[in-house]
Amino acid sequence: MSRALFFLIDIICMALFALLARVAHQSDTMPLNFSGWLSTYWPFLLGILGAWLIMSLTKMVPTRLAPAGLFVWIFTVIVGLGIWALRHHTVPHWSFMMVASITSAVLLLGWRIIATKVLQRQA
Questions:
Q1: Under 8 Å CB-to-CB from 84, ≥6 apart: which residues?
Q2: pLDDT band at 1 (very low <50, low <70, confident <90, very high)
Q3: What range defines the domain where residue 96 resides?
Q4: Which InterPro entries match (predicted)?
């Protein structure tokens, strides 16, 4: 599997994360539409992009759960929630931080665990 594919999978995982968030929390001020999804997605997308930039500069192997997968997950959550806090001028509620952290962990780490198992079976 190539680095580009892993990068694409991370981007898709966070797009799915944003879609699930919009479905769960749609309202009159944040409807379930493209702009609502994009508003939720872009802060976490910036986290993914930043994490991958740092991984590229440090030569981390993106296929590995640790440290690469853990780094992508933690960096993405910190950047995404940090931008959310700046946009809303408040710290996110603890429950939001927990759900965002757990859901993104399942998505960003889960696929790496599955890929590792598949690649081990192929070897």
A1: 43, 92
A2: low
A3: 3-122
A4: DUF3054
